[in-house]
Amino acid sequence: MVAQNESRVNQFILSGLSTSHALELVLFGFFAVIYMLILHENMLIIFTITYDQCLPTPMYFFLSNLSFIDVCHSSVVMPKMLADFLVERKTISFGECIARMFFLHLFTCTEILLLTAMAYDR
Q1: Which InterPro entries match (predicted)?
Q2: pTM of the entire predicted model
Q3: What is the rounded distance in angstroms from the CA atom of residue 67 to the CA atom of residue 38?
Q4: The pLDDT value given to residue 1
Q5: What pLDDT, on the 0 to 100 scale, is given for residue 67?
Q6: In the chain, what is the straight-line distance between the N-terminal and C-terminal CA atoms, in Å?
Q7: What backbone torsions phi and psi does residue 33 show, to the nearest 5 degrees?
Q8: 12 pairs with which residues across the strands?
Q9: By the 8 A CB rule, do 84 and 13 touch?
Q10: Which of 3, 64, 70, 88 would suit a FRET pair with 16, their CA atoms being 20 to 30 Å apart?
């Protein structure tokens, strides 16, 4: 019987943007503000379109869905990136990496299809 060389990847080590912890704290603050602005502005768009009775047209329906997909899309990547700015050892498990890749591709494809529908509706 022939022995096989098998190994499993359990986690990945992320190199990050910088090796300086002070710079990572500055980047954490910068990207945290950007993430909060993304969440706030897209939620504002969704609530405005949902609760304003003058905006029942299909284009605003698509716009609110596009804002929702943008929230989901940014929520796949940003929380892990922000958490990695605060820790010394930046790792991600194989399953978590695959799940993030799946949802990143899912929301990107959905956004492309929604933008195509918006262009067709125009």
Answers
A1: GPCR_Rhodpsn, GPCR_Rhodpsn_7TM, Olfact_rcpt, Olfactory_Receptors
A2: 0.82
A3: 9
A4: 61
A5: 95
A6: 65
A7: -65, -45
A8: 92
A9: no
A10: 70
Instruction: Work out the burial of residue 105: count CB atoms within 10 Å of its CB; fewer than 13 is exposed, 13-18 middle, 19 or more buried.
Output: exposed
* CA 102 – CA 108 distance, rounded (Å): 10
Six token digits for residue 75: 């929520």
Phi, psi of 37, rounded to the nearest 5 degrees = -65, -40
Separation of CA 114 from chain center: 17
Q: What share of the chain is helix, strand, coil (3-state, %, to 5)?
A: 70, 5, 25
Surface-to-core class of residue 30, CB atoms within 10 Å of its CB (0-12 exposed, 13-18 middle, 19+ buried): exposed
Give which of 37, 39, 36, 59 is closest to 49, Cα–Cα: 59
Domain boundaries, the chain: 21-121
Render pLDDT for 38-91 as a digit per residue (tens, 0 to 9).
999 999 999 999 888 887 788 888 899 999 999 999 999 999 999 988 888 888
- In whole angstroms, what is the distance from residue 96 CA to residue 39 CA? 23
Distance CA 28, CA 21 (A): 10
Give residues with Cβ within 8 angstroms of 110, minimum separation 6.
69
Give the tokens for residue 15: 């190199």
